[in-house]
């Protein structure tokens, strides 16, 4: 039997399973043993059943206008509890700093006055919306949900690659990956203690209810989706379903009398909190794009009047601008008075003259990204670009230095992934999701691990044809069980005399009757053979 | 209708429902054991087995998922395990072959022919979804191809009684196991009620509303009160109540159990949940006996003994 790890090549990147000496790292001991023990066909059979369960569940995403099952890899990614306990506070810290920054940007702009960030950084951001100025967040939260993208560099250190505080998506894949993987690898779940992720919808709903306008006792929360043709529609419906709230489209909402309502069979019903999955520009044709049919006219006016909470808040894009990203460590020090727990990737701001010159010199060894792009759009990897592309890029950088940042090519860490030849290293990143309910920032244990399926590919994005992995954060076996509501009515009663399960007496009787009937037939046949023609007497 | 046929119909209803409910119950409990790193497997499996009326081995034996699967899922010899009850349902359908529709017979028979052998823990989930799918096919055919005459009444009577009984057993796991008790979310999942519940209560989960949903919700078809009400209306269909007449024993038992839940404060119910659930189970059992005594009286079995003069 050949081992699926045979010929596993060592690479320049940090491999999360096999260290540089070829030894298996302790966190992966169980997973590696289980995978190595499995024959190729067996693992492929499991991969097949995983894919089938995705098609059956309808876990799909939109790829170039076609509904495809979201590719999930059979080999999980493992993060130890100790590693996670350093990453999660770092993510939460970053969210707190971005919250403070947003409150400042759409408020007094102290950071500008104190010279922490230049004013032009804010005003030149395409996602800075003056329409959002003066909208007060009821419980001080603007970033209800965030996805902070992390990578592990060549030394295995986690670093932040980018922040997503507008409408980060992907959490539904975390939930469905986990469900599908427990069914595919029950034995691994039994052997390892993995922190559960199923709490997410409850946490999200609590955070959304906490964000309701003041004075609303029983807030009505809805999820606003662009509609079934949106690439993340599966996620919208899953979140609405698991939170037990309505999934509305723009045309289901109506703004009237300074309030937002939804049209129901019982007449209008007031809406208090909108978890919107529609981009800012489409939210309200009165305030933004007038041709938008995805939003509801008057929404912004209601938000300004404080009768409805829009989550995440409008205008958050100014905080996940990639140029702002370069200032986030400073923002953490400025607002929180703390040192950043998770570092950034080194970045050149092309606005600065020396930086631009250096980058233009070394363009063929750097990664250049547009500041407001998401999903890997417009990104150029220097070493892989042609001479013509680089020349073209040079002109664009000179024309609009504010629009771009440059970073060294980081060798993202690799994790074994099932491909044609067996298990091979592929680059991954990690998007943990954080939910802010105003009192604390809760980070979902794990998050979405995205994997670049082509060999050596460093751009990891589902809209670029990437896959995903289930991310297992190990619980410390001896650690305390996290707070869980106590059993409401504890009983120490020993199992009582249980009530018997009834059965049809005929089923019990039938066995003896069956024997008798068969005996009867047998005897009849025997008699016929013994005495041909003769009647028994 | 022949009493013998009626009895078979009643039991087809019960066995198919039993397979369905047991599959849901075991599936969700095993899933929780996998997902919750703090679950104590042995204690959780023991509470499950004791609720399902199985003898528990002594404390020196550790019970795990495979034992639970063998006893509750793959055992073919007893009609209280999934495989056994599907086999028994098919036996009963064979006896009532002439009154049930061909569609129904084929659905039950195909289930029996496709019944897989013992599977490992890894494939248990696909086995359970198969069982649920087959019982959904059977109930769908019952509802769409059988006239609402006595045939249907007996089938649905069996189904409703069994459902009330199984939901009561399920809720009893909540109280029995103490610290390893499944939470209400798990119980809702077992009944396929989680999403209905979330919609009903807008995701504001509380233990109390969850318990209320499974015990007394009038609209959710798997709540105990709804299932008992359905059983009552089947009895009503079999023998409409006339003026001045008292109710028969079966209806009395069922109505008593239903009223005991419906007309009681939820907090009182929760305080003594195991006792109340045991009462529901005993009432179902007594009603089942009463139905048998009334509708399927077996002639007194004559036993011939070697005579001693």
From TrEMBL, chain A:
It comes from Cellulomonas aerilata. Residues 76-452 form the Circularly permuted ATP-grasp type domain. This is Circularly permuted ATP-grasp type 2 domain-containing protein. The lineage of its organism: Bacteria, Bacillati, Actinomycetota, Actinomycetes, Micrococcales. Residues 461-537 are annotated as: Disordered. Pfam families: CP_ATPgrasp_2 (PF14403).
From TrEMBL, chain B:
Coiled coil: none annotated. Residues 1-296 form the DUF403 domain. Pfam families: Alpha-E. Signal peptide: none annotated. InterPro entries: ATP-dep_Glu-Cys_Ligase-2, DUF403. PANTHER family: BLR5612 PROTEIN (PTHR34595), SLL1039 PROTEIN (PTHR34595:SF7). This is DUF403 domain-containing protein. The lineage of its organism: Bacteria, Bacillati, Actinomycetota, Actinomycetes, Micrococcales.
């Amino acid at each position: 039997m050949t081992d699926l790890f045979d010929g596993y090549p060592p690479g320049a990147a940090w491999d999360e399973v096999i260290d540089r000496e070829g030894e298996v790292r302790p966190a992966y001991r169980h997973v590696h043993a289980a995978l190595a023990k499995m024959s190729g066909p067996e693992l492929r059979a499991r991969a097949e059943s995983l894919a089938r369960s995705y098609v059956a569940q309808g876990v799909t995403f939109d790829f170039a206008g076609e509904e495809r099952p979201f590719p999930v890899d059979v080999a999980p990614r493992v993060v130890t509890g100790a590693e996670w306990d350093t990453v999660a506070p770092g993510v939460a810290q970053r969210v707190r700093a971005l919250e403070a920054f947003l409150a400042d940007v759409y408020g007094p702009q102290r950071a500008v006055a104190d010279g922490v960030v230049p004013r032009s950084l804010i005003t030149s951001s395409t996602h800075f919306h003056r329409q959002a100025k003066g909208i007060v967040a009821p419980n001080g939260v603007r970033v209800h949900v965030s996805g902070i993208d992390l990578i592990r560099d060549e030394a295995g250190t986690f670093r932040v690659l980018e922040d997503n505080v507008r409408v980060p998506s992907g959490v539904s894949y975390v939930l469905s990956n986990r469900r599908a993987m427990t069914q595919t690898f029950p034995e691994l779940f039994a052997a390892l203690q993995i922190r559960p992720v199923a709490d997410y919808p409850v946490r999200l709903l609590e955070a959304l209810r906490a964000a309701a306008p003041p004075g609303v006792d029983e807030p009505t929360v809805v999820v606003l989706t662009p509609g079934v043709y949106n690439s993340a529609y599966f996620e919208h419906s899953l979140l609405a379903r698991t939170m037990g709230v309505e999934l509305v489209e723009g045309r289901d909402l109506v703004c009237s009398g300074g309030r937002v309502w939804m049209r129901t069979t019982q007449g209008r019903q007031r809406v208090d909190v909108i978890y919107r999955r529609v981009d800012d520009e489409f939210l309200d044709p009165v305030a933004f794009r007038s041709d938008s049919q995805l939003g509801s006219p008057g929404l912004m006016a209601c938000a300004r009047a404080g009768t409805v909470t829009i989550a995440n808040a409008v205008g958050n894009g100014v905080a996940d601008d990639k140029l702002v990203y370069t200032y986030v460590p400073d923002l953490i020090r400025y607002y929180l008075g703390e040192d950043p727990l998770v570092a950034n990737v080194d970045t050149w701001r092309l606005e600065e003259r020396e930086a631009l010159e250096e980058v233009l010199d070394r363009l063929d060894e750097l990664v250049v990204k547009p500041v407001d792009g998401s999903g890997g759009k417009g990104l150029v990897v220097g070493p892989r670009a042609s001479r013509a592309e680089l020349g073209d890029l040079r002109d664009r950088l000179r024309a609009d230095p504010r629009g771009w940042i440059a970073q060294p090519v980081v060798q993202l860490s690799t994790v074994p992934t099932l491909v044609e030849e067996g298990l091979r290293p592929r680059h991954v990143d990690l998007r943990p999701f954080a939910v802010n309910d105003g009192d604390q920032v809760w980070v979902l244990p794990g998050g979405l691990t995205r994997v670049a399926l082509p060999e050596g590919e460093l751009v990891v994005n589902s809209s670029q044809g990437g896959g995903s992995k289930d991310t297992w954060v190990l619980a410390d076996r001896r650690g305390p069980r996290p707070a869980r509501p106590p059993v409401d009515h504890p009983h120490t009663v020993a199992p009582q005399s249980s009530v018997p399960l009834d059965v049809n007496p005929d089923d019990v009787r039938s066995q003896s009757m069956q024997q008798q009937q068969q005996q009867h037939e047998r005897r009849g046949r025997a008699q016929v053979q013994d005495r041909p023609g003769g009647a028994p007497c | 209708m022949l009493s013998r046929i009626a009895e078979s119909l009643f039991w087809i209803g019960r066995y198919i429902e039993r397979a369905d409910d047991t599959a849901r119950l075991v599936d969700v409990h095993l899933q929780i054991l996998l997902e919750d790193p703090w679950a104590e497997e042995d204690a959780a499996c023991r509470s499950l087995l004791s609720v399902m009326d199985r003898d528990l081995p002594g404390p020196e034996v550790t019970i795990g998922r495979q034992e639970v699967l063998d006893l509750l899922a793959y055992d073919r010899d007893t009609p209280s395990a999934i495989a056994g009850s599907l086999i028994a349902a098919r036996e009963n359908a064979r006896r009532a072959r002439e009154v049930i529709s061909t569609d129904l017979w084929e659905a039950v028979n195909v289930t029996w022919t496709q019944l897989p052998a013992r599977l490992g823990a890894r494939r248990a989930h696909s086995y359970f979804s198969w069982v649920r799918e087959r019982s959904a096919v059977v109930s769908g055919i019952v509802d769409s191809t059988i006239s609402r005459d006595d045939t249907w009444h007996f089938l649905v009577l069996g189904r409703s009684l069994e459902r009330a009984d199984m939901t009561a057993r399920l809720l009893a796991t909540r109280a029995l196991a103490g610290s390893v008790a499944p939470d209400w979310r798990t119980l809702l999942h077992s009944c396929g009620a989680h999403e209905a519940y979330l919609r009903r209560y807008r995701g504001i989960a509380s233990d109390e509303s969850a318990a209320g949903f499974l015990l007394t919700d009038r609209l959710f078809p798997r709540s105990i009160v709804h299932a008992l009400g359905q059983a009552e209306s089947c009895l009503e269909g079999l023998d409409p109540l006339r003026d001045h007449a008292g109710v028969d024993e079966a209806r009395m038992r069922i109505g008593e159990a239903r009223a005991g839940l419906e007309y009681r404060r939820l907090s009182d119910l929760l305080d003594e949940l195991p006792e109340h659930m045991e009462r529901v189970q005993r009432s179902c059992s007594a009603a089942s006996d009463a139905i048998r005594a009334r509708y399927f009286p077996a002639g007194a079995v004559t036993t011939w003994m070697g005579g001693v003069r």
